[in-house]
Structure formats: C-alpha cells, structure tokens
Known about the structure:
Elements: H1 2-21, H2 24-29, H3 32-46, H4 58-79, H5 93-107, H6 120-162, E1 180-185, H7 186-191, E2 194-195, E3 199-202, H8 206-210, E4 220-228, E5 248-254, E6 259-260, E7 264-270, E8 277-279, H9 281-284, E9 293-300, E10 306-313, E11 320-327, E12 338-343, E13 349-352, E14 362-369, E15 379-392, E16 397-399, E17 403-408, E18 413-419, E19 425-432, E20 435-437, H10 452-483, E21 485-487, E22 497-505, E23 517-523, E24 526-527, E25 531-532, E26 546-553, E27 560-567, E28 578-587, E29 592-602, E30 609-616, H11 623-637, H12 642-645, H13 655-675, E31 687-691, E32 694-697, H14 698-724, H15 747-751, H16 757-765, E33 766-768, H17 783-809, H18 811-847, H19 859-870, H20 876-896, H21 907-944, H22 951-964, H23 978-993, E34 1018-1019, E35 1024-1029, E36 1032-1037, E37 1041-1046, H24 1070-1075, E38 1084-1085, H25 1087-1090, E39 1095-1096, E40 1101-1102, E41 1106-1110, H26 1115-1127, E42 1135-1146, E43 1151-1160, E44 1168-1176, H27 1183-1214, H28 1216-1219, H29 1221-1248
Parallel strand pairs: 21-26
Antiparallel strand pairs: 1-4, 2-3, 3-7, 4-5, 5-6, 5-19, 7-18, 8-15, 9-14, 9-20, 10-13, 10-15, 11-12, 11-14, 15-16, 15-19, 17-18, 21-33, 22-26, 22-28, 23-24, 23-25, 23-27, 27-30, 28-29, 29-30, 31-32, 34-42, 35-41, 35-42, 36-37, 38-41, 39-40, 42-43, 43-44
Helix pairs in contact: 1-3, 1-4, 3-4, 3-6, 4-6, 5-6, 10-13, 11-18, 13-14, 13-17, 14-17, 17-18, 21-27, 23-26, 27-29
Amino acid sequence: xxxxxxxxxxxxxVYISLLMFCYKQWIKVVIKVELIFLSxxxxxxxxxxxxxxxxxxxxxxxxxxxxVYYMMQAVANSAVPDNMKQLRCVDNLDAGRAQISDMLAVxxxxxxxxxxxxxxxxxxxxxxxxxxxxxxxxxxxKNTTKAAAKMVERLAQQMQDELxxxxxxxxxxxxxxxxxxxxxxxxxxxxxxxxxxxxxxxxDGLAKAVRPDGQGGEEDVSLSAIEFTENVYMYDNDGTSxxxxxxxxxIDTKTKSRRITPERMTFxxxxxxxxxxxxxPNDTVKAEDAxxxxxxxxxxxxxxxxxxxxxxxxxxxxxxxxxxxRFHQAPSILDFEFDFLLEKDDDWQHCINASSMLGHTGLTYxxxxxxxxVKEIQYNLTLITGGCLTWNEAATKWETDKCExxxxxxxxxxxxxxxxxxxxxxxxxxxxxxxxxDFATVFLKFSPLxxxxxxxxxxxxxxxxxxxxxxxxxxxxxxxxKWGITALRDNRLTDSSYYLIRVLxxxxxxxxxxxxxxxxxxxxNGDTGSRELFDGVxxxxxxxxxxxxxxxxxxxxxxxxxxxxxxxxxxxxxNASWYLNQVSVYDAHTKQAYTFVAEKWLSVETEVxxxxxxxxxxxxxxxxxRFFYQTRDRLSESHMWVSIxxxxxxxxxxxxxxxxxxxxxxxxxxxxxxxFYKTESDYESPPLLQAGPxxxxxxxxxxxxTCALITTPPVMLLMVIxxxxxxxxxxxxxxxxxxxxxxxxxCSSTKRDASPDFAKQLxxxxxxxxxxxxxxxxxxxxxxxxxxxLVVAGTLVPAFFVLLYSMQWxxxxxxxxxxxxxxxxxxSMLFVDTIMVMCFAFVFACxxxxxxxxxxxxxxxxxxxxxxxxxEDKDDMSSIFAILKKIKDEYVSYTxxxxxxxxxxxxxxxxEAAKQRRLELNLIKCILDFILNxxxxxxxxxxxxxxxxxxxYYHRQELIRHFVSxxxxxxxxxxxxxxxxxxxxxxxxxxxxxxxxxxxxDALHWYYRTFMTGLNNYRLGPPRLRQLRTxxxxxNIPYFGNTTCYGxxxxxxxxxxxxxxxxxxxxxxxxxxxCNVAVDAWSFTSALDIWGLPLTGFYTTYGGGxxxxxxxxxxxxxxxxxxxxxxxLWVDRQTRVVLFEFTLFSPETNMFxxxxxxxxFPQTGGAFTTYWIYPIxxxxxxxxxxxxxxxxxxxxxxxxxxxxxxxxxANISTKAEILCPxxxxxxxxxxxxxxxxxxxxxxxxxxxx
Length: 1249
C-alpha cells in the first residue's frame, strides 16, 4: 500500500508539472532556467521505478514516460525564441543595403522606392538595428536553450532505459508518447527503415558501430528517436541555426553496456514542394533577343545550400531545356558561370551542388533558353534551396558538409546520405527561393545608345576606308609614273650599249635631294665619263624613292668595277644633302647585275661624293648594308600599314588591295578578340609551362591558336590572290598613254585623272610603266573577283557578329572591349609589327649574304621602246624625222631646264658651304626649340592648372558661411570648451549637412536629403568625428604623491586600445552593442584602414587614425550619436584633438570639396580651432576644357618620349655629356621630372576610374 501511495503521489507531481508547463503565459511569468531545472528534477524523479518490483509496472512506466515526454517538449519549445529564423548577419550599413537591395530586386518589383520617404542608408540603418537587437535577444537565450537541450537529452535517454518493451518490438503504435523506441538486433535495425512523425531514417553503419570489425550484427541494440518542432540546438556560433526549417530529429542508440554512434546513415524529412509558377515565354522573351532567353532571378541566402530547379513544359515535343546561371548579373549566351540541361529522363529537374556556387550569396540570375517554337509553350518553374544539417556538440555548430542531399519533389521529401557523424541530431534547411522574371535585363537587344561606340567605330572605319580608297587609287595610278623607266638625257644617238641603273634613296628624315647628281661608272674596258642622273623631267630624288634610268654608252664597259657618284649641293635647305642607299646596275648585254652599296650621307658636313666598288650577284655584301636593305624591303612588303603608304617598286599588289586586306584583318581581329574577351574562370588555371614571371596555361594557348586561325588564313589567302592573279587579257593593250607598252589600267581610268604637264612630259619619255607580275605559279584572272568577294565577306560577317556581341555585353562592357581592342591595334601597328619586321630583316641579313639580283623588267622591251623613241627601228626617212624630233625635244629640254654636269666641290667650297649650312641649321634649330619650348610651357601650364577652377573661391566662401561663421548659430571660432564643440556639431554642422525641410518648411524628398543645405553639394560618404587620444601615465606631484597624469599628444605613442562605451575595458556587454548607436566610436581604427594622413594643427601634428563616429544616416540618428557621446563622456581628459571630416561633390561645377575642422584640446586646457576647405577637380577630362587638357596631356607624353629618344640617340652619337656635363645633368633632370609627372598622372587617372 505504501508503494502504491508513493506511485500515486509521484504521478500527481507529474500532473501538476504538466499543468504548469503546458501554458506559455505561465512560462513567461517564471524564470525559464528554474523551470528547466524543475522539469528535469520532476522528470527524473518520476522515472525512478524499482527494478525488483513483483508488480507489473509496464503500464505505469509507459504512462509516466509519456507525460514526462510532453512536459519536456513543452519546456524545450518555450525556450526557443520565436523570431530566431529572422536573424541574418548584418555587420554594417553596406551589408544591410545589399540584403535589402537583393530582396527588393526579387519580391519588391512593384514597390516604388522613388516615392518612399526613406533613402537607402535609412532603411539599412533600421534593418541593422533590428538585427542587432535580435542578436542580443538570441544571445541572452542561448544558455537557456542549451540547458533545455541538455535536459531533453538526459530525460530522453532515461526514458529509453526505463521503457520496457519486448526485445524485438517497438512502440510505434503507442498513443501515450511520441518518443519512438525500437529494440532488435543491430543487423535488423541497420537493414530496416525507421519512421517518425516527419522523418524516416536507416542506420547503415550500426553493425560497425557495435563492433569495429563489423561482426556485431547479432547483438541487441536499443534505438530511441525524438522529434522537436523547435530548434533547441540554436546555440551555435555562426548563425546557421537560423536557417533550420525542419523538425529536429534526435536519435540515441545503445547496447546493453554502452551508447554508440553510427558513422553512416541515411534519413529523409518532409519538405513540401511549393506550388510552381507558370511562365509564358512569349511574355518574357524579347523579339530582338537573339539568345531567346527567359530571365529569372532569386536570392541565394546560404552559401552551403544546394539549389534545385525544376522546369516542366506544359506541352509536347520538347525534349530538354538548357539553363544558364550567373552571379550578380544576368547570363548571356557567352557569359555565364555554368550551364546544364534539364531533360525528361531526369524528371525535368536538376540540383546544383553548393560547391558550384563558389561561396556566392545574394542576388543570383538564371535564364531558360526557349529557342524557336519552344517559346510558344508554357512551363512550370519550381526553385528551392536546401541542405542537410548535422549537429556537432563538441564544435557547437551545425555542420553542412557531412551529408549529400537529394530532392524528391513528387514525394515532398529530402533525402540525406550522411557520413562521419559525431552526434545523431539531424535537420534540413529548405527554402522556396523567391524568384522573378527579369523583364528589365534582356541582353542582345539593340539600343542606339548602348551600341553607339561600336556602331560609330564601324561607321568611321567604313568612311575612312572609302576616303582612303579614293586617295590610294590615285596614288596607284601615279605609281606607274614613279616606277617608270626613262632614258638619261645625255644619252647619244650613236650609243649602242645599254645599262639599267636603279637608284635607291634612303628612308631617313631628309634623305631626298633636289641637287644635281652626277656619276662616273667604270669597267674593265673604260668608263662612262661624267654623266648626270637626269631624264629631262624628274628633278627630285625623294625620300625612299626607287628611280630607274636607261643609260646608253658608245661601247661596252666590260665587267663593272667602280662607281663614283656626287651632287653639286644646289638644292635648297634640306633638299641639298642626299642619303644614298645603293645603286644597282644591270648590263643588258651580259645579263649581269651589279650592286654598289653606299649607305652614306652626301652632304657638305661630310662629303658630297662617294666611291663604291661593284658587288656582283655572287659576291657577299656587308652585314649593315644587307640589314638596312632587308629592313627597307620588309617594311615596304610585309608591314601591313607601312606598305600601304610606301608600296614597294616591284609588286602588282596595289595600295587599294593592301588597304582592303588591312580592313579584313581589323574586322577578323575584332571578332577574335570579342570571342574571348573576359571569359576567364574565377579560379587560376595551372600553368603548362612557366619561365620566371611568364606563365602559359592551356587556356591561353588555346585562345592564341584560335585567334591566329581566325585572322591569319583569310588574310594570307587574300594576299596570295591579289599578288598571284594574272591580269585579264582584254584589259591589256587598251592604254595609249605609254608608247609601245601596255599599262595596268585601261585608258578610261586615266581620263578621270586630270594629269598635270609634268605627268604628260614624263609619259612622253617613259620607256615602260608596266607593273611587273610575279614569276612562278599564277592564278586565273577571275580569281580577282573571288578575292574582292572575300573582302566583302571578311568585313561584313565579323562586323555583324561584333555588333551582336556588343548588344550582348551592354554599353559598359562594349566600351571597355572597344578601348582594349583599339589599344591592342595601335600597339600592333607601332610596336609588334615593327619589331617583327626588324627581326625578320636581321634573320634574312644573316642568312643571305649575297646581293639580291632580281629583275622583273623585260630588258629587251625597254631597249626596243628606247629605239622607237629615237627612231632607230624605222626606215631611213622615218628615222630622219624621228632623229630631228628628238634633237628638237632635247633642245627644248636643255633650254627649259639647263643643267650642266659639274665636278665635285673643292675643299674650300665644301668648307664654306658647310659653315653656311651649319648656320642655317643652328638658326632653324633655335627657332624650333623656342617654338617647342614655348608650346611645352603652355602645355605644362594647362596640365598644372587643369584641376583648378575659379569656382573654388565661391565654394569655399559658401562653406565658411554655413559652418565657420553662420548667422544666428554657434560659430566654429567660438569653440572654447568641449561642450561648445558638441553644441556646434549638434546645432550647426548636422542641420546643414542633413537638411530636413526646404526654405518653405516643407519636408524634403529623400533624394534631396542626400545634399547639404542649399541643395548644391552632394554628401559623398558619411561625415565622421575622429578623436585622437594620449595615453594615461603616472607622475609624482609634491604633497600628492603618485597620481594619474595625461601628457601631451605624441604621434608615436598615441592611444590605440579598444574600449567599451564610457571608455570601459573590454569585453563589452551585449546590451551595449545592441542598444547604443555609437558603439564603433570606442574602437580604434588604424590610419592604414582609412588611408589617413597626419595633419598638423596649431599645437602639434596628429595621426591619420583614431576613434571614429560616422554620421551616415540622417539628422535624427546623427543627433542621437552626439547625445550618446556626450552622455558617455567620449571627450575626456585624454582627448587631444577631435576632427570633423566630410567630403562634398558639386555636380554643377564637377568639383570635390574636402573639409576638415580640427578642435585641439591641449593638456593645459582650452581649445584651438583650425579648419581646411579644399575644393579640387579630380575628374579633369569633363567638358570642353577637360578634353583640351586631355589632348595636352597626350601631347606632353608624346613630347617626353620623343625627347628621351632624341637625347639617347644624341648621347650615343655625339657623346654630348663629356663635352657639356651641365647640359647632360639638365637633360636628365628634365626627363626625370617629366617621367615622374607622367607616372603620377597615370596613377591618378587609374585611381579615379
């Protein structure tokens, strides 16, 4: 009876406890920690039953265990905060703005933020403060929840021990408790699935947990499973518990002797599949969208969650959908992070592993491609994010990497395969990711504004091409005159031996001449005597020209040995001297070619004559001559851009054709660069080859080979077609301008070219102007049509695809690509091609040591044409008339242009002429130096004063009127005490920086509240109070002894410790962190973190760091910060200076205004005030004046590079430093200052951008 009475009393205690715990209004009255302790005490005492009782206590134990179970569930659930799932990490305003922006972008598209009364900072501030208070509330409840969790664990384990079910039974059908108890062998439990209220699990690793060798399958094991509707394990350290959305499943397994933990298991939990959203692609895909994308976006909240997507078509004949994902912005057909295929065999769904998201969180974009007829069919879209979680009590955290998740939307389940488990506590995070159709972001659509840069570039390119074709076509027609062969005027009718003389003038500055040139050619059988290089018409040997003459002699000279050539210095100015490259002489009788190499200036400063020995085809030539000849030849033939303007003499490849090849090359390079522009992966690829700082990856090699295959073969094919195509026969022999020969173009082309008298005279004496064809394999004439079709295709097709790429990229990326492309083209034109030509010239000069004896002229035809002009091939009467006509023409020529062959100048004449020439050059040099230096001074002044503006004065005066000497408000100069400073900040600075009403007293729109008073200057960043403090020390004062002292400020020994509010030592109270708005003002910030620089005040110099209180929200919050600082004595005896700093921007004047107001508090008391107001123009290249400054900067850089190159060449050639060290030092100083200025300019431009 006593036993029964005790049981009844114990049962009554349990009932009382249950009655008290089941109502939350009672729980709120009593302290929860005491309730947890009381419930555990009651539960433990209720579950104490005698083990040796003769009565059957199974029913009583079952009833009591059920009551204790519901009691501990009620206590545990009450200990978990209701708002825990609202917690998100918001460290600062930037994080708050980002989270709010992401959510509004997805679910707030109908919200008009422009009409809102708050701006971004205000919304972010309220959100941050809400999260701070929530964090504080949860932090205070963590210990309570942890105690509740421990209480539940202990009671559950005790109930598992006490419940007496049969050895191979379970209590799944028990209605008195929801705690599942199963007892069976380890093998049976491991191979069967156990079901709870919302979960199902299978302990695959149970047998191995019983015995490490896996032989424990026959041993009896007891299994207990409990589900909690609330997350009692919310006391983790990283906030993952706020993402738990499912019930908490806790499992306990034990043998007869110990508790065990299987390291491997699978479990499933209920996860209700959301109702899909029906999408109509015709409404979301723009007609001009070439990618045919249906865009969507969602907020990816947790970086360890998987993203699962299901797209089910509402029609037939669809086999798959391709989906493109991209972070931060919408994907395109070219720019995306990854893509995948949704197929019917996979039930139209795909899960993206968290590792593929690369740690990204926030706004995420994806696009479903619906090509062709597919866009006519609707589809249902379902998107979720989720993951499997396991609890680790030792680390006090929810682990996300122990399980692999599988989503089963049809069964509303999530499956998890878990390994390496430490605690048998499981949950999942399952979120229906809010997503929206992104109507605003549609790529690949044409917009005249967005594609203006690329479209304008193509338009300018086409216009330049048309203009250049017109100009170059005229130059091609004139080339026949320049290359034509004429006879020397001093040839005699009785001469019978013929030589072809080709004179090559150098490609140096001022290499051409208008002086009279004479020569003597000597052979084994004699010499020519003094002969003049003049055909009666052409008087100038221009720079880089190749002029060919036919010389006739009375007798054959034999093997040529020597040539002497000179001029009479009769040209004016720069046209007096001459740089001779070489002279080639071809003997028409022996078919032998000779080369006379000069490579020398013929001028009065050196010598006006040169003696050259003959080099036959089989004789080697000096390396320097070979190198310069190869450089000249490569530049005129291989350099794509130089060869357009300096076309080689022997080439049927016209300038217009060369320009067309260059146009095709530009367009193909455009498309090649566009294909691989900014497509690198976010990770660094391992290099296949590395040599010092140079790394070659597989991606780089692939891109380079692909670009080369795109650009090189088409251009090479065009060049071969234009060079090797035979001319059409019916287009030949129709030209009447060249006597006895056929021209390149028909007569109709010459009619359009209004030739001057010079051209007519030259045509009348020209022996041939035919452009010679290359020898070897030649293509049929109609290949030229195919070549021009290739030009059209190679221009229009790349241009079309580049426009598509620009539409795909949008305005910003298109302009970035265009800038980089233009820079690369200019680099290729100026440096890469030139260096490559020089390298080829060097190689060929080393390999081919002999002269290049090429002749692409039919010498027999030239001689025959000469005889026709002189009448030698006609009958006697016709010959007499031809001879008389030639005598008349020569008489007219000699009378109109009398030129006599003069011998080389005498030494005295040379000296006098050289002196006169030096005086002229010095005078010209002085005038040019004066002009250039004056221009340079002007450019330097423009650059130096580009950031100055006369509006600076008005900005400064306006700010002084508002902050320093305001009317009817505390003035800055009146600050004498700490309270004066706070009064000035509160009543003068903050109202002016954060206006609330206009001049009529009406509330300002949030946009205008981002300006200061007057609405002219925009607040750029938050204003801030910055305090610097001295360290506390000890000093010995007579009669007082040792006491705390605060000395003067020392930059090297300033206070840098972190404090809590009121300068209390850390750690800080959580209440302070949550309930105060100025918690950051008590922590030290280094100068490196804010790019601070020392400032010198009235008293001393102060560092760039300090204790900072930012004012980055609005007037009310800023006033609250000031009041909180005053209340907690932010400024005290250790304070030595307080600086109020802020930056403004004036859109009207394009000026930034940096402001610093300094109040010093020396150890002697009082206050010293100093202020700086710096109006400055950082964006100098805005407006007409800014563009003019940019042009001056470019000119300065070009001038500096030219000056450096000129001085390097002068120092190498003349050793000027030895003769004048002061001049050398001045040059070095000028170059150094210029380079420093240029580097500073480039740094500032890059920094501002």
